[in-house]
Amino acid sequence: MGVEIRVEGLKKSFGRQVIWEDVSFTIPAGEISALLGPSGTGKSVFLKNLVGLLRPDRGHVFVGGGDVPRLRENELYDMRRKFGVLFQDGALFGSMNIYDNIAFPLREHTRKSESEIRRIVLEKMEMVGLTGAEAKLPGEISGGMKKRAGLARALVLDPEIILADEPDSGLDPVRTAYLNQLFVDLNTEMGATFLIVTHDIGTARVLPDNLGLLFRRGLVMFGPREMILSSTHPAVNQFFNARRQGPIGMAEEKDQAEVASEGAIPKAMPAPIPPQLMPSDGRLRPSMRRPGEWLREHQTKPPPGSFIDDQGRNWMTDWDSLVHARERPQ
Ligand SMILES: Nc1ncnc2c1ncn2[C@@H]1O[C@H](COP(=O)(O)OP(=O)(O)OP(=O)(O)O)[C@@H](O)[C@H]1O
After folding, report:
1. Whose CA is nearest to atom 28 of ligand 1?
2. Is 282 left (phi over 0), alpha (psi -120 to 50) or beta?
3. For ligand 1, what atom is nearest to the CA of residue 88?
4. What ligand 1 atom has the least distance to the C-alpha of 214?
5. pLDDT 10s digit of each residue in the chain, 330 long?
């Protein structure tokens, strides 16, 4: 089962360059959260701070009773077992075949027998659709396969938290759709807490339960998907609707003159909120809320056309009939 990550007052700088400061929020247990932001706002640096690969200047990262930046080396080693991390390029060892790459954490962190390791590795390879690729070297497989191999390796220790840094970068839209489905299915199956860094707005709109935006050296907003996708906050609205007009510029932040030259930015209506991606086994997502619930509680109207799927079904009004007979995972 997943655990929550509570971040309090986190600040990170490199020399005089402040990457972000005063970052405080809670990543809910067992839910899928996604972190977005313009290039260079420190999303990868943030993930590395969560697992203790980088230390913040100040602040806390509470995970299961421990505060990651304050752990001693041996405690950090144990803490890292809770995490499965999928790095941007899969971070596979080039000289090891796919099987050995995936087996690596088991050989490093456990005393399991080779036959037990084999069972686990083959099971995870099947989960990510890599059966048959055991003997291949990373240089002999496609980018998408490398990502899936990295994901299989992140899964072998049955982590409570999965961090994925741009798992969809460089993937074609169909493979991205498969990978997103895999994340939903894994979350349903394992109940782990997911934090995914992505640039893909399509992914951000359908995959997570919660969304966050890093910009201007801080966390602008983090919260339920419906809150973020209906927000009229200038940066949030601009980013999640992929618009040019707004405070985010080509070089991250527009200067005052550039913002002034755009004149008053028309208050653009956020795009319709799509229904969430559902598990492929027909169950409900573990932490799925009724579509429109957050909006109703906060007396916010959904953007027109929201919650209608590509079969024309309306997940807000027809929820009871659509989820009839679906179960939540135990
Ligand atoms: N080890 C390091 N030493 C010094 N500066 C670093 C280090 N790691 C990252 N940075 C700097 O921190 C900033 C944020 O980098 P990071 O890779 O986290 O951004 P990002 O938001 O993930 O970007 P992208 O979306 O392009 O992947 C960059 O300016 C980068 O140069």
Report:
1. 40
2. left
3. 27
4. 21
5. 789 999 999 999 999 999 999 999 999 999 999 999 998 899 999 999 999 999 999 999 999 889 999 999 889 988 888 999 998 766 789 899 999 999 999 998 889 999 999 999 999 998 888 899 999 999 998 888 888 899 899 999 989 999 999 988 877 888 889 889 999 999 998 899 999 999 999 999 999 999 999 998 999 999 999 999 999 888 999 999 888 888 887 665 655 556 566 555 556 678 899 999 999 988 899 888 999 999 999 999 999 999 999 889 999 999 988 887 777 776
Distance CA 148, CA 146 (A): 5
Stated pTM of the model:
0.91
In this structure, are residues 2 and 30 in contact, taking their beta carbons and an 8 Å threshold? yes
Q: How far, in Å, from the CA of 123 to the mean position of ligand 1? A: 35
Cα–ligand 1 centroid distance for 42 (angstroms): 5
User: Are the C-beta atoms of 192 and 186 separated by less than 8 Å?
Assistant: yes
Q: Return the residue whose CA atom lies nearest to atom 30 of ligand 1.
A: 40
Gap from CA of 304 to ligand 1 centroid (Å): 37
Q: Is the ipTM of this complex over 0.90?
A: yes
How many other CB atoms are there within 10 angstroms of residue 153's CB atom? 28
Protein residues whose CB sits closer than 6 Å to any atom of ligand 1: 14, 19, 37, 39-45
